[in-house]
Design brief:
This protein has 201 residues and is mainly alpha-helical. It has two domains: 54 residues, Homeodomain-like (Arc Repressor Mutant, subunit A), CATH 1.10.10; 116 residues, Tetracycline Repressor, domain 2, CATH 1.10.357.10. It is built from ten helices and no strands. Helix 1 crosses helix 2, helix 4 packs parallel to helix 8 and helix 9 packs antiparallel against helix 10. This is TetR/AcrR family transcriptional regulator. One of its GO terms (molecular function) is transcription cis-regulatory region binding. Keywords: DNA-binding, Transcription, Transcription regulation. InterPro entries: DNA-bd_HTH_TetR-type_CS, Homeodomain-like_sf, HTH-type_TetR-like_transc_reg, HTH_TetR, Tet_transcr_reg_TetR-rel_C_sf, TetR_C.
């Protein structure tokens, strides 16, 4: 099998060891942050050899992005269709892998500063972690447009990043763990009124 850039993927670790290594990577990342995370630290946590890690992941960035994309502690939010924009946003944001999930938020906190300095990490993070989640969000707003919940003059691009932007501000600027109450306030007082566009004014 050939990957997106034409290179053959490295062999997977046999059995359940790969998942154990990914889980260990998430744990170390949450505890130490990206800069202090090392292959040695992950190998120790996973009770594996560094050789095992390097056979599967050539760099720390490869391992970390694979871990946060696939490990059980960072599940992909489900692509839900509740029949309304409000329902979809709540289900997507408050369930497993959503903003109220403590593990993913602590993990992303360990990457925030490194993403600004490490171009390879940033590229891999955008393509393999953010892009699938942005695809789910795009689907939510596309369905809302089809249902007529979003006015023609509403800025959908800005709408789609508003909730994540507020959550990031709360978590990484104010140091407050996102709550379901906060998510509902943003949805009900910012996103839904904005979605109605000039109809709400």
């Amino acid at each position: 099998m050939i990957d997106a850039v034409g290179a053959r993927p490295r062999p997977r670790v046999e059995g359940g060891r790969e998942e154990e290594i990914l889980e260990a990577t998430v744990t170390v990342l949450a505890e130490l942050g990206y800069d202090r995370l090392t292959m040695d630290a992950v190998a120790t946590m996973a009770k594996a050899s560094k050789a095992t890690l390097y056979r599967r992941w050539s760099t720390k960035a490869d391992l970390v992005v694979d871990a946060i994309s696939r490990a059980k502690g960072c599940p992909m939010p489900e692509d839900v269709d509740t029949g309304s924009l409000r329902g979809d946003l709540i289900a997507m944001s408050c369930g497993d892998g959503g903003f109220t999930d403590e593990v993913p938020m602590s993990v992303i906190a360990g990457l925030v500063t490194a993403l600004h300095r490490d171009a390879d990490l940033q590229k891999a993070f955008r393509e393999r972690f953010l892009a699938p989640r942005q695809g789910i969000s795009a689907g939510v707003y596309t369905r809302a447009v089809a249902r007529g919940e979003i006015a023609p003059d509403a800025d959908i691009e800005m709408l789609s990043v508003t909730l994540p932007a507020v959550i990031v501000h709360q978590a990484y600027i104010l140091g407050e763990q996102p709550t379901e109450e906060l998510i509902l306030r943003v949805i009900d007082h910012i996103i839904l009124p904005a979605a109605r566009g000039s109809q709400a004014r």
